[in-house]
């Protein structure tokens, strides 16, 4: 449903990225495309993996992997908030019947050097979307800004199906979310909190980091970025595993952020070298 | 004369920043209108989540009349011998579009010049406002700014910064009217008009504004309460109505009401319930779960929390039952989280939680929280000994310090969300659950008090000792780790912690900051977190910090600056004593006996070399010097055998009898009685200076008299350096 709505609004419909990400923002369709002057509007589902949020499938609201619906509008249209509200109407949430509120919440992703101003959107007190006017990515100021709408799909399902736990959501054909995913929740929670081999993951961190540097030297921006994504996930696993102390944490985040910045700069160079093809296209259209 | 209206329609602004924005708007508008010579009757500004409003009542339609005098070259260079204008004068006149023949002489402070006077053009307000408004809006300060407009072709090509308008949130409409006329221009990518909106993304129909006079009523008809005070009153009355109807008592929360005032434009009330099994959680936990994220108000009946909440919605909602159910579901999830934490933590128990402190870093380079607990325990003992609170059991201090920070390792606090605000309180709840001594439970709850200038003080000696020790330990540690405050930077709020410490010590004259500091430094050195080599440097800097805090503290409490200097010169390290003395002196200021004493103290101080001035001598030394034959300082001895003048002998005798009295009153800490005993010496000092030539031509006599006065000075200097006091008649500067 959301897919149809945003397609009609002129968004490209894309697919999730083929690597573990903590949020749809890491998908290159967001992180890289928000850089530079080229217009870009797209929408996609993103399974988001957050090792720390795992609760062995026991908690009604927290899971280590959940689904986001990501909409990117660059530059943001003047009536972007109205379009968002219309998307809710489109999936059956009548704004006149409910209490829909924009509550100040400035979003930030320290590993990506990404931040913006915006709100969390409340539906009858429940946070269902993060709405951000992106101002920075890869520690670079964006021009133009991008509107990023991140719908929490499970929250919205809870609401629409009037159930109390993520586990009880009917995912289709009478099968519940628990039946589909509980085993994964249990096993990945155990993996992230108890079993993951920390030495192996620290080695991965180092190797991935090295790979980013080498690919950047060869001007292979997209492969370099792939390894930034992987770094970020390995960091999340180590963090959940309790292998990174509070003091070290800032250092690791800083390392990833520095690489994200290098990739961002390189990406901008590469688009400029290509003559910003999407900018030309938009002008001729 | 007309009324002027500016309404700036925005996407939801950050609630905490709105008030200061419209207050600034009012001030800036006043300044600018004055500068533009546009008189008005009254300026009104207000704001809400989606609009900032400026109304200028009775604004002049045109600028007020004013003439200006323009001066050119000096008179002697403006005319030639024939009295014709020189080229310089002609050039000046032409450049200003003026006939050189009409130049006249203007007298100024710098001499005589040629010039002319012209009447300034009176421009129309409707034109001036078009430039003024964008300037006012762009000048508003917000905690964070953003841009939202598309890149201009130039910046897109060059990869430069977005040069569009910057504001706290996007501006989407602007109503700008002078009387019933729209002032048309563009700003922030928006064309001005006379159409306002309620919530444009939900109710798209505009509200047409006919004139500034009808603006408020038109908005009201559309359901928007524009004025912030009206909204606050509305929220309060809604909450009270609900409470009254249900026979409940509202738990007042002005901070939350203020936030809601700037979140909602047409507040409407909706009641929800939650399962009463959550009431087994500490009341504060439940209230915090309701308030800090969900912004719900809570109620009590007969002092006890009831399982209900009040949420305020934007306007009346279409399906109250659904909205209520949604809110109940969200609150349930939060209370469920809290219950999970509560049960988990209680299973772990106080000792288990305290054990975890060994793995939590307090502040980088300053060890773990467990290390801190050990230091605080020793420091608290030192504070208690000095306070004379000997009744507090050592074991109890140890236990309390050991578990005081345990809640920082609890799931409830570690979650890092709303419940972190409850540190200390959560710890005391867990301590109580696990059957700790009630005094320890109270002390844990009180260990962070006073949290702010308006907060209460701990009620128990143990709680006070923990709070003193915790603050002193953090301040000392931060100075050791190069985290001392500089300028506006004070990331660990050490200044506030120090102010709280001084307040805690006000009623504890026995506690010396200097001794606390020594003990605190020892704690870090003994724990291997600092070396003895850093000690003296850190000590000096900390002393400087506390001295300046003490001075500011006394001034903030209304003590005159000269009394502050007099007292802190001597007694700053005992804030309790300094505070009492400062008050005694302030209360006696202007009385004859006191003024005479001050005059005397000044005369003593003026005649002595600084090398002769001794502060902080012990009473035993003073007694030895005056009553026996002890030395005041190496080579300084009082020698009454050589006294010649009667008033010299009289002063000596008076001091001899005063010393034991002063000593006794000092040990009883009766500050008022000490000062009255000192005042008793005033007349004798006065006579002494009238009769005795201190700087006698005879070197021996002179030296003897100086030594005697050094002794007199040392006695005053145990109390205050009274020479700092400005005598009455000469008023202290503001």
Order of helices and strands of chain A: HEHEEHEEEEEHEEHHHHH
Could you give a short account of the major beta sheet of chain A?
Answer: 8 strands, mixed
- Give the DSSP E fraction of chain A (strand runs of 2 or more residues): 15-25%
General form of chain B: flat
How much is the radius of gyration of chain A in Å?
Answer: 19 Å
Give structural attributes.
heterodimer, A: 285 residues, two-stranded antiparallel sheet, 9 helices, globular, B: 734 residues, alpha+beta, four-stranded antiparallel β-sheet, 18 strands
Protein described:
The complex is a heterodimer of chains A (285) and B (734). Chain A has 285 residues and is α+β, with helices and mostly antiparallel strands. Chain A has nine helices and ten strands. Chain A has helices spanning 2-8, 28-31, 80-90, 153-161, 177-195, 198-217, 221-240, 246-273, 277-284; strands spanning 12-13, 40-49, 65-74, 100-104, 108-109, 114-123, 126-137, 140-152, 170-172, 175-176. In chain A, the strands form two sheets. In chain A, strands 1, 2, 3, 4, 5, 6, 7 and 8 form an eight-stranded mixed β-sheet that branches. The relative contact order of chain A is 0.15. The mean pLDDT of chain A is 93.
List the helices and strands and how they pair.
The complex is a heterodimer of chains A (285) and B (734).
Chain A: H1 2-8, E1 12-13, H2 28-31, E2 40-49, E3 65-74, H3 80-90, E4 100-104, E5 108-109, E6 114-123, E7 126-137, E8 140-152, H4 153-161, E9 170-172, E10 175-176, H5 177-195, H6 198-217, H7 221-240, H8 246-273, H9 277-284
Parallel strand pairs in A: 1-2
Antiparallel strand pairs in A: 2-3, 3-8, 4-6, 5-6, 6-7, 7-8, 9-10
Chain B: E1 2-10, H1 15-35, E2 42-48, E3 51-59, E4 67-74, H2 75-78, H3 87-95, E5 104-108, E6 111-119, H4 125-138, H5 153-158, E7 171-178, E8 181-182, E9 186-187, E10 190-193, E11 195-196, E12 207-208, H6 212-221, H7 228-246, E13 249-250, H8 254-261, E14 267-273, H9 283-293, E15 297-301, E16 304-314, H10 320-356, H11 369-387, H12 394-404, H13 411-414, H14 425-433, H15 438-446, H16 461-480, H17 494-506, H18 513-526, H19 532-556, H20 561-571, H21 575-588, H22 592-607, H23 619-627, E17 631-633, E18 636-637, H24 646-667, H25 671-679, H26 682-691, H27 699-716
Parallel strand pairs in B: 7-10
Antiparallel strand pairs in B: 1-3, 1-7, 2-3, 4-6, 5-6, 7-8, 9-10, 11-12, 13-15, 14-16, 15-16, 17-18
Helix pairs in contact in B: 7-8, 9-10, 10-14, 11-12, 11-16, 11-18, 12-15, 14-15, 15-16, 16-17, 16-18, 16-19, 17-19, 17-21, 18-19, 19-20, 20-21, 22-25, 22-26, 22-27, 23-24, 24-25, 24-26
